[in-house]
Amino acid sequence: MLIALTCAAPLLLCLGVAPLETHADTSHGASHDTSHGASQSAFSTGDTTGESGKSDAAPQRGRGGANPATGSSGNVAAARGTANADGSEAVTITSEDKFAIAGSYWGPKAHGDRVPGVILLHDAGSTREDFGDLPAQLNKRGFAVLSIDLRGHGSSVSERADFEKASPEEQKGLWAFSTRDVQAAATWLRQRPEVHSTNLNLVGVGAGVGLAVRHAARDENVRSLVLLRPCVDQLGFDLAADLRAIEGLPAYIAAPGDVRDQVKDLLGPMEGLNTVEVNYIRDAEGPLLDARRLPRTIVNWVGEQALPKRGRS
After folding, report:
1. Which contiguous run of DSSP H or E holds residue 208?
2. d(CA 240, CA 186)
3. Which pTM does this prediction carry?
4. What sign for the dihedral angle of Cα 239, 242, 247, 253?
5. Residue 295 near residue 131 (C-beta atoms within 8 A)
6. DSSP per position, 99-141
7. Contacts of residue 176, Cβ cutoff 8 Å, sequence gap at least 6
């Protein structure tokens, strides 16, 4: 069964915005950087076509380009903070274009062997708080978990970026460059000494699905994807094309039953692959993660993909 989450700022963001013709360059330092030579607008993100001016559609996994998880395409810094009430640690990760990205980190409970990592990516117009206790459940299962507020959202709102105050075009620009936030998060998590650097798993909700799939297409260290309520329009991302680039990668997709036809059209032949599980939730009301048993299903499925199998005694 595959998992999809509800689009948080609702269907206007997921379905009502015309797609961009090109995408932002996330694996190379784009010359049209949001932090250099930008206009005075706090939401100006520059040309999302990247250095070459060509479309930046996701490449096939393992073919060319720098690996965004190695940190070679930009400097990534992070500050560690104090413990939160939910057992996580507050962290701030600096993206290559100097955005401060707030996050919560759940480190492994026991010392010893390195553990797989999970990154949680919220929907457009939402925050990391919408994942509820899913991060803690994943952590209890044996994962190191990093949940971030993407630029312009939650605790990552700044004078340079405020998603709620941005125009629709500015929102698309902010979302396009949020790929850099994902890259920075992946680099930070993989460099943790307690984290297995080649075992990264991504969970995306709504428009966050596009960010997760785009990163997975470029990072061979991604082991599995959980995609919650994927949207046909991803604020300028061509999700259908990006999904084709990650064929063969284990994916769990969940969506409300009332959007079954749209999701089937989006997935196409991918839905029939034995590496893909799709779950259509009947009578889903509110966020998908509120559905009974869905968080536990996600935790178990990711565990089956990423955690080492224990032999019988």
Report:
1. helix 208-218
2. 23
3. 0.78
4. negative
5. no
6. -EEEEEEE--SS-SS-EEEEEEEPPTT--GGGGTTHHHHHHHH
7. 20, 23, 24, 45, 48, 235, 236, 237
As a whole number of angstroms, the distance between CA 240 and CA 267 comes to 7
Our CA angle for 261, 9, 139, nearest 5°, is 85
The per-residue pLDDT for range 263-294, each reduced to its tens digit, is: 999 999 999 999 999 999 987 777 888 888 99
Helix, coil or strand: residue 179: helix
Instruction: Return all residues near 56 (Cβ < 8 A) that are at least 6 apart.
Output: 22, 23, 24, 25, 26, 48, 49, 50
The tokens for 269 are 């032949």
Residue 123 to residue 208: CA distance in whole angstroms: 5
**Spatial distance between the Cα atoms of 95 and 98, rounded to a whole number of angstroms:** 5
Tell me the three state secondary structure of residue 94: strand
**CA dist 205 to 35, 37, 119, 165, 259, Å?**
27, 32, 12, 21, 15
